[in-house]
Design brief:
- The chain is mostly helical and 321 residues long.
- The chain has a single domain, classed as MetI-like (MetI-like fold, Orthogonal Bundle), CATH 1.10.3720.
- Helix 6 packs across helix 9, helix 6 runs parallel beside helix 14 and helix 9 crosses helix 11.
- The longest helix has 39 residues.
- The radius of gyration is 24 Å and the shape is globular.
- The mean pLDDT is 80.
Length: 321
Protein backbone atom coordinates (compact mmCIF):
# COMPACT_ATOMS: atom_id res chain seq x y z
CA UNK A 1 0.00 0.00 0.00
CA UNK A 2 1.36 3.42 -0.93
CA UNK A 3 0.79 6.79 0.72
CA UNK A 4 -0.62 7.99 -2.59
CA UNK A 5 -3.37 5.39 -2.48
CA UNK A 6 -4.17 6.21 1.17
CA UNK A 7 -4.50 9.93 0.42
CA UNK A 8 -6.66 9.28 -2.65
CA UNK A 9 -8.89 6.92 -0.69
CA UNK A 10 -9.34 9.47 2.10
CA UNK A 11 -10.16 12.23 -0.39
CA UNK A 12 -13.01 10.11 -1.71
CA UNK A 13 -14.72 10.46 1.66
CA UNK A 14 -15.75 14.10 1.07
CA UNK A 15 -17.96 13.59 -2.03
CA UNK A 16 -19.37 10.47 -0.41
CA UNK A 17 -20.38 12.47 2.66
CA UNK A 18 -21.99 15.16 0.51
CA UNK A 19 -24.00 12.52 -1.35
CA UNK A 20 -25.04 10.95 1.96
CA UNK A 21 -26.22 14.30 3.34
CA UNK A 22 -28.25 15.04 0.21
CA UNK A 23 -29.79 11.57 0.07
CA UNK A 24 -30.66 11.58 3.76
CA UNK A 25 -32.22 15.04 3.53
CA UNK A 26 -34.39 14.08 0.56
CA UNK A 27 -35.52 10.78 2.05
CA UNK A 28 -36.52 12.33 5.38
CA UNK A 29 -38.36 15.28 3.82
CA UNK A 30 -40.32 13.34 1.20
CA UNK A 31 -41.44 10.73 3.73
CA UNK A 32 -45.16 10.97 4.62
CA UNK A 33 -46.21 12.80 7.77
CA UNK A 34 -46.32 16.39 8.99
CA UNK A 35 -43.65 17.27 11.59
CA UNK A 36 -45.68 20.22 12.86
CA UNK A 37 -48.77 18.06 13.36
CA UNK A 38 -46.71 15.36 15.07
CA UNK A 39 -45.09 17.82 17.48
CA UNK A 40 -47.91 20.31 18.06
CA UNK A 41 -50.77 17.81 18.11
CA UNK A 42 -54.13 17.94 16.37
CA UNK A 43 -55.89 20.41 18.67
CA UNK A 44 -54.07 23.62 17.71
CA UNK A 45 -55.47 26.45 15.59
CA UNK A 46 -54.24 27.55 12.17
CA UNK A 47 -52.22 30.44 13.60
CA UNK A 48 -50.32 28.15 15.92
CA UNK A 49 -49.54 25.71 13.09
CA UNK A 50 -48.31 28.60 10.94
CA UNK A 51 -46.07 29.79 13.77
CA UNK A 52 -44.59 26.32 14.27
CA UNK A 53 -44.06 25.87 10.52
CA UNK A 54 -42.10 29.14 10.35
CA UNK A 55 -40.19 28.27 13.51
CA UNK A 56 -38.98 24.97 12.03
CA UNK A 57 -38.24 26.63 8.67
CA UNK A 58 -40.67 24.33 6.88
CA UNK A 59 -42.36 27.24 5.09
CA UNK A 60 -39.35 27.56 2.76
CA UNK A 61 -38.80 25.61 -0.41
CA UNK A 62 -36.91 22.31 -0.22
CA UNK A 63 -33.74 23.70 -1.91
CA UNK A 64 -33.70 26.60 0.56
CA UNK A 65 -34.08 24.23 3.48
CA UNK A 66 -31.23 22.08 2.17
CA UNK A 67 -28.90 25.05 1.70
CA UNK A 68 -29.67 26.26 5.21
CA UNK A 69 -29.10 22.79 6.62
CA UNK A 70 -25.85 22.38 4.65
CA UNK A 71 -24.53 25.75 5.88
CA UNK A 72 -25.24 24.81 9.48
CA UNK A 73 -23.78 21.36 9.01
CA UNK A 74 -20.54 22.85 7.66
CA UNK A 75 -20.26 24.68 10.99
CA UNK A 76 -20.89 21.50 12.96
CA UNK A 77 -24.48 22.44 13.81
CA UNK A 78 -27.07 19.68 13.37
CA UNK A 79 -29.93 21.94 14.41
CA UNK A 80 -32.31 21.56 17.33
CA UNK A 81 -34.65 18.70 18.09
CA UNK A 82 -38.28 19.55 17.33
CA UNK A 83 -39.48 17.42 20.22
CA UNK A 84 -36.90 18.04 22.94
CA UNK A 85 -35.91 21.57 22.00
CA UNK A 86 -32.24 20.77 22.60
CA UNK A 87 -29.29 20.70 20.17
CA UNK A 88 -29.48 17.58 18.04
CA UNK A 89 -25.83 16.73 18.65
CA UNK A 90 -26.49 16.75 22.39
CA UNK A 91 -29.49 14.43 22.00
CA UNK A 92 -27.56 12.00 19.80
CA UNK A 93 -24.36 12.12 21.85
CA UNK A 94 -26.24 10.84 24.88
CA UNK A 95 -27.18 7.68 22.98
CA UNK A 96 -23.95 7.00 21.06
CA UNK A 97 -22.03 5.34 23.96
CA UNK A 98 -24.75 2.72 24.49
CA UNK A 99 -24.96 1.83 20.79
CA UNK A 100 -21.17 1.88 20.44
CA UNK A 101 -20.80 -0.48 23.39
CA UNK A 102 -23.39 -2.87 21.97
CA UNK A 103 -22.09 -2.91 18.38
CA UNK A 104 -18.38 -3.10 19.24
CA UNK A 105 -19.07 -5.93 21.68
CA UNK A 106 -21.05 -7.78 19.01
CA UNK A 107 -18.28 -7.29 16.43
CA UNK A 108 -15.60 -8.53 18.84
CA UNK A 109 -17.70 -11.58 19.79
CA UNK A 110 -18.51 -12.38 16.17
CA UNK A 111 -14.93 -11.93 14.95
CA UNK A 112 -13.23 -13.93 17.69
CA UNK A 113 -16.00 -16.53 17.86
CA UNK A 114 -16.18 -16.93 14.10
CA UNK A 115 -12.43 -17.41 13.72
CA UNK A 116 -12.31 -19.92 16.59
CA UNK A 117 -15.19 -21.91 15.07
CA UNK A 118 -13.51 -21.80 11.66
CA UNK A 119 -10.27 -23.15 13.13
CA UNK A 120 -12.16 -25.98 14.83
CA UNK A 121 -13.94 -26.85 11.59
CA UNK A 122 -10.92 -26.54 9.27
CA UNK A 123 -8.63 -28.57 11.52
CA UNK A 124 -10.77 -31.66 10.86
CA UNK A 125 -12.51 -31.17 7.48
CA UNK A 126 -15.68 -33.23 7.03
CA UNK A 127 -15.45 -34.40 10.65
CA UNK A 128 -18.13 -34.02 13.28
CA UNK A 129 -16.84 -30.61 14.40
CA UNK A 130 -16.87 -29.38 10.83
CA UNK A 131 -20.44 -30.63 10.38
CA UNK A 132 -21.63 -28.99 13.61
CA UNK A 133 -19.99 -25.64 12.77
CA UNK A 134 -21.22 -25.47 9.17
CA UNK A 135 -24.76 -26.55 10.06
CA UNK A 136 -25.01 -24.25 13.06
CA UNK A 137 -23.60 -21.33 11.05
CA UNK A 138 -26.16 -21.88 8.30
CA UNK A 139 -29.02 -21.90 10.81
CA UNK A 140 -27.82 -18.75 12.58
CA UNK A 141 -27.18 -16.93 9.32
CA UNK A 142 -30.69 -17.69 8.07
CA UNK A 143 -32.47 -16.71 11.31
CA UNK A 144 -33.70 -13.09 11.57
CA UNK A 145 -32.19 -11.09 14.44
CA UNK A 146 -35.58 -10.06 15.84
CA UNK A 147 -36.62 -13.74 15.99
CA UNK A 148 -33.40 -14.73 17.78
CA UNK A 149 -33.91 -11.82 20.15
CA UNK A 150 -37.44 -12.88 21.05
CA UNK A 151 -36.31 -16.48 21.58
CA UNK A 152 -33.47 -15.26 23.79
CA UNK A 153 -35.86 -13.20 25.93
CA UNK A 154 -38.47 -15.95 26.25
CA UNK A 155 -36.25 -19.01 26.32
CA UNK A 156 -33.21 -17.76 28.24
CA UNK A 157 -33.84 -14.52 30.15
CA UNK A 158 -37.35 -15.31 31.39
CA UNK A 159 -36.97 -19.06 31.78
CA UNK A 160 -33.61 -19.13 33.54
CA UNK A 161 -33.46 -15.67 35.10
CA UNK A 162 -29.75 -15.50 34.33
CA UNK A 163 -29.95 -12.27 32.34
CA UNK A 164 -31.88 -8.99 32.72
CA UNK A 165 -34.65 -8.48 30.18
CA UNK A 166 -34.67 -4.72 29.69
CA UNK A 167 -32.38 -1.73 30.00
CA UNK A 168 -28.67 -1.09 30.37
CA UNK A 169 -28.47 -0.84 34.15
CA UNK A 170 -30.50 -1.85 37.19
CA UNK A 171 -32.69 1.13 38.24
CA UNK A 172 -31.73 2.76 41.51
CA UNK A 173 -28.49 0.84 41.83
CA UNK A 174 -25.35 2.86 42.61
CA UNK A 175 -22.74 0.61 44.23
CA UNK A 176 -19.62 2.24 42.83
CA UNK A 177 -17.71 2.14 39.56
CA UNK A 178 -16.80 -1.56 39.53
CA UNK A 179 -20.26 -2.76 40.54
CA UNK A 180 -21.84 -0.48 37.93
CA UNK A 181 -19.50 -1.80 35.21
CA UNK A 182 -20.39 -5.38 36.14
CA UNK A 183 -24.08 -4.48 36.10
CA UNK A 184 -23.75 -2.99 32.60
CA UNK A 185 -21.83 -6.08 31.43
CA UNK A 186 -24.60 -8.29 32.84
CA UNK A 187 -27.23 -6.34 30.89
CA UNK A 188 -25.01 -6.27 27.79
CA UNK A 189 -24.26 -9.99 27.53
CA UNK A 190 -27.50 -11.26 25.98
CA UNK A 191 -28.15 -8.36 23.55
CA UNK A 192 -24.54 -8.52 22.33
CA UNK A 193 -24.76 -12.27 21.77
CA UNK A 194 -28.02 -11.89 19.86
CA UNK A 195 -26.63 -9.10 17.69
CA UNK A 196 -23.47 -11.14 17.03
CA UNK A 197 -25.35 -14.30 16.08
CA UNK A 198 -25.60 -13.68 12.33
CA UNK A 199 -22.15 -12.11 12.14
CA UNK A 200 -20.40 -15.00 13.87
CA UNK A 201 -22.04 -17.33 11.36
CA UNK A 202 -20.84 -15.22 8.41
CA UNK A 203 -17.29 -14.96 9.75
CA UNK A 204 -17.12 -18.68 10.58
CA UNK A 205 -18.29 -19.78 7.14
CA UNK A 206 -15.97 -17.42 5.26
CA UNK A 207 -12.93 -18.07 7.47
CA UNK A 208 -13.45 -21.84 7.22
CA UNK A 209 -13.56 -21.63 3.43
CA UNK A 210 -10.42 -19.47 3.37
CA UNK A 211 -8.58 -21.80 5.73
CA UNK A 212 -9.41 -24.88 3.66
CA UNK A 213 -8.12 -23.13 0.52
CA UNK A 214 -4.90 -22.12 2.27
CA UNK A 215 -4.37 -25.59 3.75
CA UNK A 216 -4.42 -27.00 0.23
CA UNK A 217 -1.89 -24.45 -1.11
CA UNK A 218 1.75 -25.11 -2.00
CA UNK A 219 3.28 -23.04 0.81
CA UNK A 220 1.34 -25.02 3.44
CA UNK A 221 2.45 -28.31 1.90
CA UNK A 222 6.02 -27.01 2.04
CA UNK A 223 5.62 -26.09 5.71
CA UNK A 224 4.32 -29.57 6.47
CA UNK A 225 7.20 -31.13 4.55
CA UNK A 226 9.61 -29.21 6.80
CA UNK A 227 8.11 -31.02 9.77
CA UNK A 228 6.05 -28.22 11.30
CA UNK A 229 3.20 -29.30 13.55
CA UNK A 230 -0.36 -29.02 12.26
CA UNK A 231 -1.07 -26.34 14.85
CA UNK A 232 1.82 -24.17 13.64
CA UNK A 233 0.78 -24.73 10.04
CA UNK A 234 -2.81 -23.75 10.79
CA UNK A 235 -2.09 -20.71 12.93
CA UNK A 236 1.21 -19.51 11.49
CA UNK A 237 0.76 -20.08 7.77
CA UNK A 238 -2.88 -20.57 6.83
CA UNK A 239 -4.74 -18.27 9.22
CA UNK A 240 -2.95 -15.01 8.38
CA UNK A 241 -3.71 -15.24 4.66
CA UNK A 242 -7.22 -16.51 5.29
CA UNK A 243 -8.02 -13.40 7.39
CA UNK A 244 -8.09 -11.03 4.40
CA UNK A 245 -11.62 -11.92 3.23
CA UNK A 246 -12.72 -11.94 6.88
CA UNK A 247 -11.61 -8.32 7.26
CA UNK A 248 -13.55 -7.51 4.11
CA UNK A 249 -16.70 -9.02 5.56
CA UNK A 250 -16.31 -7.28 8.92
CA UNK A 251 -15.77 -3.88 7.32
CA UNK A 252 -18.60 -4.35 4.85
CA UNK A 253 -21.11 -5.58 7.41
CA UNK A 254 -20.76 -2.77 9.96
CA UNK A 255 -23.85 -1.18 8.45
CA UNK A 256 -25.67 -4.50 8.79
CA UNK A 257 -24.68 -4.69 12.46
CA UNK A 258 -25.91 -1.13 13.07
CA UNK A 259 -29.25 -1.88 11.41
CA UNK A 260 -29.55 -5.04 13.50
CA UNK A 261 -28.77 -2.98 16.59
CA UNK A 262 -32.01 -1.04 16.04
CA UNK A 263 -34.03 -4.25 16.41
CA UNK A 264 -31.96 -5.54 19.33
CA UNK A 265 -32.25 -2.25 21.20
CA UNK A 266 -36.02 -2.31 20.87
CA UNK A 267 -36.31 -5.95 21.98
CA UNK A 268 -34.06 -5.47 25.01
CA UNK A 269 -34.91 -1.86 25.84
CA UNK A 270 -31.31 -0.82 25.23
CA UNK A 271 -31.04 3.02 25.41
CA UNK A 272 -29.11 3.62 22.20
CA UNK A 273 -29.53 5.23 18.80
CA UNK A 274 -31.92 2.51 17.65
CA UNK A 275 -34.61 3.42 20.15
CA UNK A 276 -33.99 7.11 19.49
CA UNK A 277 -34.42 6.47 15.76
CA UNK A 278 -37.78 4.78 16.27
CA UNK A 279 -39.14 7.47 18.61
CA UNK A 280 -37.88 10.26 16.34
CA UNK A 281 -39.49 8.61 13.32
CA UNK A 282 -42.82 8.40 15.12
CA UNK A 283 -42.55 12.06 16.16
CA UNK A 284 -41.19 13.20 12.77
CA UNK A 285 -38.26 14.86 14.54
CA UNK A 286 -36.40 15.70 11.32
CA UNK A 287 -33.18 17.16 12.79
CA UNK A 288 -32.64 14.10 14.97
CA UNK A 289 -33.44 11.73 12.09
CA UNK A 290 -30.95 13.50 9.84
CA UNK A 291 -28.35 13.50 12.60
CA UNK A 292 -28.68 9.75 13.21
CA UNK A 293 -28.57 9.06 9.46
CA UNK A 294 -25.39 11.12 9.14
CA UNK A 295 -23.65 9.55 12.16
CA UNK A 296 -24.42 5.99 11.04
CA UNK A 297 -23.47 6.66 7.41
CA UNK A 298 -20.19 8.32 8.39
CA UNK A 299 -19.37 5.38 10.64
CA UNK A 300 -19.89 2.93 7.78
CA UNK A 301 -17.81 5.05 5.38
CA UNK A 302 -14.92 5.45 7.82
CA UNK A 303 -14.89 1.74 8.70
CA UNK A 304 -14.83 0.79 5.01
CA UNK A 305 -11.91 3.15 4.38
CA UNK A 306 -10.01 1.69 7.34
CA UNK A 307 -10.78 -1.79 6.03
CA UNK A 308 -9.27 -0.92 2.65
CA UNK A 309 -6.17 0.47 4.33
CA UNK A 310 -5.83 -2.67 6.47
CA UNK A 311 -5.54 -5.06 3.51
CA UNK A 312 -1.81 -4.54 2.97
CA UNK A 313 -0.93 -5.19 6.60
CA UNK A 314 -2.51 -8.65 6.34
CA UNK A 315 -1.20 -9.57 2.90
CA UNK A 316 2.11 -7.96 1.81
CA UNK A 317 1.45 -9.12 -1.75
CA UNK A 318 -1.19 -6.42 -2.15
CA UNK A 319 0.09 -3.19 -3.67
CA UNK A 320 -2.00 -0.18 -4.64
CA UNK A 321 -0.91 2.28 -7.27
Amino acid sequence: MTARYAVRRLLQVLPTVVAIVLLGFLLVHIAPGDPVLAVAGENGDAEYYRFMTERFGLDRSLPEQFLTYGARLAQGDLGRSYVQGRPTMEVISERIPATLLLTVSALVISTVGGIVLALLAASRPRGWRDTVVTTGSLVLYAAPVFWIGQLAVLGIALRTGWFPIQGMTTPGRDDGTLARALDVAHHLALPALVLASQEVAAVARLARSGLLDELASDHVRTARAKGLSERKVLLGHALRRALLPVVTVIGGRVGHVLSGAVVVEIVFGWPGLGRLLVSSTQARDIPVLLGIFLVVALTVVVVNVLTDLAYASLDPRIRYS
